[in-house]
Amino acid sequence: MKKALQLALGILTAVGGFFDVGNLATSAQAGARFRFQLIWSLLFATILVIFLVEMSGRFAAVSGKALPSAIRDHLGFSFWLGPFVILTLVHLLVLGAEIGGISFALQLVTGIGFQWWAFPVAIVIWLFLWRATFSAIENSTSLLGLITLCFVVAAVVHHPPLHQVAAGARPTLPSHDGATYWFIAVSIIGSVIAPYLFYFYSSGAVEDKWDKSYVAVNRGISVIGMTFGSAIALGALVVAAMVLAPRGIHVSDYNQAAAMLTDAFPFWGFVLFAASMGIACLGAALEVALSLAYATSQTFGWNWGEDLHPREDARFSLTYTVAIFLSALIIAAGIDPLKLTLFTMVINAAVLPFVTIPFLLLMNDRRLLGTNCNGWFSNAIVVMIVIVSFVLAIVSIPLAFIGGT
Amino acid sequence: MHELDLARDVMDKQLIDRDCTEMGRVDGVLLELSDGSPPRVDSFELGFVVLAERLHPRLLALLEWLRRWSVRKTARQVVQWSAVEEVTERYIKLSIDATETPAFDWEKWLGMHVVEHLPGGKEEE
Asked: Among A9, A122, A268, B9, which is most buried by a count of CB atoms within 10 Å?
């Protein structure tokens, strides 16, 4: 019974925590520019992320180690230093994009420029992390995050042509703007397979003291939670295709995306969009800041844990503190939140090999995982993910220059 | 565990003290070499300078220079192998108190000079 409750809570967490500024921006752009044609990239990325999240949870439950800790343990400092530095920078950019998302949501409802909200937002994020426990953060932001289901409701209200939606699940070549098409496809994959997700999820499993008995719960959370989470992103894409595409709106800034929900919810649409964006980004910002502090503390072997008082893990607590305020600087400097988000999602895709290769090595370590090692099927999937991640790493940066909007 | 592979089971491993507090990682291993007998593990080292030494001599020089602002009493903390109580797949447990070693100098300094001055930083659990 306790496990069933945890499964339900875990699924809610995954659904509420899945959708963030990256999903919103890339789904809105995909729907607005190419209607349903890029649904395949969202489905493809969802399948990959289900496998990777399941593996990171299984790894933590069986070995008792979170991923950054295990990578340093088993692959060594020299192997890990380069990826660690690069992923730290990526974390800061993603955190900046999430702070930008919250700040923009506040701009929508107050009319005060987003850059003025960067530091007040940073203080709120910091206070959450400084004062709350891990489970309080995990459960409250994820439950509030369910407000993003309004995109699914709006998608249903618009009665999209189902045969066209289904046809979008099959990869097809674009009839126009080829470079932009591939740029958005790569951005969608980068937004779904975000590196922080795996470090946060595996560290959270250690915080929640998972053991081998959680392997089945973890599988349920990964498959059901990620699938439902992806459905929200799909909802946003469909709404953008139904509302923005016919009007020729290409979503070159968040103001254009803000009208997405007003057709389905004439009175509340604007507020719902702002609330969804603000809450989804707040949840993600907390996860990204924690993920960075987890990775840093585990890399150097410091004491860490969101449930400890900041005095008991000062280095851990000050790592997320510095990260939050550094990332807020990017937004306070006036950099456009949408451009930062799209750029960051492409960088996410570019650094994927650093995330996927350790999976292949660690998930086959019988000394760590025993009978819970990857089987041939999971290995085949990981090898495919590694190959895809290399292709993405090669094409993503050039695409950002050629097809970036 | 009866056999230890230094690279696999000791290097980079998480260290915990007698109270299970995480106190760093094994950044370097020191062997004792003597004529006529095989090398013997003498101790291991912790510290950023040890990590820097593993990467590049110039990085080591840079860290040595930066040390003028460090609050840590010793850049290299040497722990004798005799302090090892247990080696497991997850950690190496030591018989010492981490909070009394240089590994906790920064932790204590930040707690006292930064965390305590922030809202809620003084509260006890």
From this structure: A122
Q: Are B25 and A301 a contacting pair at CB < 8 A?
A: yes
A-interface mutation test, from B10, B115, B116, B124, most A Cβ less than 10 A away: B115
Residue B115 is nearest to which of A81, A310, A367, comparing CB atoms? A310
8 Å CB contact of A309 and B124: yes
For residues A94 and A287, the answer to whether their CB atoms sit within 8 Å is no
Which residues, in sequence order, are CB contacts of A112 under 8 Å at separation 6+?
A106
- List Cβ neighbours of A86 (8 Å cut-off, separation of 6 or more): A351, A354
Q: Rounded to an integer, what distance in angstroms lies between the CA atom of residue B73 and that of residue B89?
A: 31
The yes-or-no verdict on residue B124 having pLDDT over 70 is no
* Cβ-nearest to B12 among A77, A310, A312: A77
pLDDT score of A107: 95
Taking an 8 Å cut-off on Cβ atoms, the answer to whether B55 and A76 are in contact is no
Sign (positive or negative) of CA dihedral A228, A230, A231, A236: positive
Residues A404 and A183 sit within 8 Å (Cβ to Cβ): yes
pLDDT of residue A345: 86
Cα of A11 to nearest chain B Cα, Å: 29
Cα separation, A300 vs A88, in Å, equals 14
Q: Residues of chain B whose C-beta is under 8 A from some C-beta in A?
A: 7-8, 11-15, 21-25, 27, 51, 54-55, 89-90, 106-108, 110-111, 114-116, 118-125
Q: Are A31 and A184 in contact (CB under 8 A)?
A: no
Sheet holding B92-94, edge to edge: B22-25, B14-16, B92-94, B84-87
Q: State the residue for tokens 């565990």.
A: B1
Q: Contacts of residue A321 in chain B, CB cutoff 8 Å?
A: 118
**Tens-digit pLDDT string for chain A (405 aa):** 567 767 776 776 677 667 888 889 999 999 999 999 999 999 999 999 999 999 999 999 999 999 999 999 999 999 999 999 999 999 999 999 999 999 999 999 999 999 999 999 999 999 999 998 888 887 888 788 889 999 999 999 999 999 999 999 999 988 888 889 998 999 999 899 988 889 999 998 998 889 999 999 999 989 988 898 899 999 999 999 999 999 998 888 888 888 899 999 988 899 999 999 999 999 899 999 999 999 999 999 999 988 889 998 999 999 999 999 999 999 999 999 988 988 888 888 888 888 888 888 999 999 889 999 999 999 999 899 889 888 888 888 787 777 665
Q: How far apart are CA A30 and CA A187, in angstroms?
A: 10
Whole-prediction pTM: 0.92
* Mutate: best of A67, A78, A79, A309, partner B, most B CBs <10 A: A309
Report the interhelical angle of A2-18 vs A269-300 (nearest 10°).
110
> Are A386 and A380 contacting, i.e. CB atoms less than 8 angstroms apart?
no
Q: Taking the CA of residue A30 as centre, how many other CA atoms within 13 Å lie in the half-sphere pointing to its CB?
A: 31
